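Training component of the fellowship. As part of building independent skills, the fellow (R.M.) carried out the full modelling exercise for a liganded target. The chosen ligand was adenosine-5'-diphosphate. The inputs are recorded below so that the supervisory panel can assess the work.
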Amino acid sequence: MSKKLLGNLQKGLLFVISAPAGTGKSTLTQMLIDEFPQQIVQSCSSTTRLPRPGEIDEHHYQFISKEEFENKVFNGEFLEHAKVFGNDYGTNKAEVEKLTSSGKHVILVIDIQGAKQLMETTDAIFIFIAPPNFQELKKRLIRRRTEDEETMVKRLMQAKVELDQAKNYDYQIINDKIDISYQVLRSIVIAEEHKKLKITQIGEINGN
Ligand code: ADP
Ligand code: 5GP
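Fellow's submitted model of the complex:
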């Protein structure tokens, strides 16, 4: 018997989400956080990329200099780090540890190189989100208006490389209809938490 839909574990789980740019990973992650604000949190990565209009430091990313990034790498502060489209990105180890220890599930929205590093070192659930087709991916990238033409072409070419890695993830979701994709993602998080719960006696569960 589960006492709550989510939030029954003493230590939260780590979910790693990767998807080609424009597929919908930020939208789907935000939907999860909106539904479960007390139980699910997205880790704030550090990056050397410049903020886009509207992006807030320490919220969307911790925007840091190249030198600060290299110091963090040297001091072993990252759980994983990678260069993506010419900029450095890293997941802060201490932040993830603090959040999971508080019982929250942590979502890392990271690229395939970072996910690959974690597959070898870290206990996490790996979810790949794919676009229904390239035409639709292009449309979504245009709609998002965060890329110029050249960057968009690069991102579409990179999408082909990324899709090839989908097979290494625990789950694959094709984000065609957003409501269906969200129900699948939500079900994965709920099922993965409940996989950890053990009944100790009638009316009691234990989840570490
Ligand atoms: P990502 O974080 O993977 O780069 P976003 O979440 O920013 O992608 O989504 C890119 C664009 O596509 C946004 O405008 C978003 O509203 C839209 N979008 C996301 N999922 C869908 C979907 N299933 N159908 C149509 N549009 C979508
Ligand atoms: P953007 O600059 O568009 O926000 O992100 C570019 C890419 O970097 C996306 O694929 C995003 O998931 C990835 N990314 C963001 N944070 C991290 C991180 O901490 N580590 C890694 N490896 N990739 C990240």
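The panel noted the following from the submitted structure. The radius of gyration is 18 Å. The pocket of guanosine-5'-monophosphate (ligand 2) is lined by residues 21, 45, 49, 80, 82, 84, 89-91, 109-111, 113-114 (CB under 6 Å).
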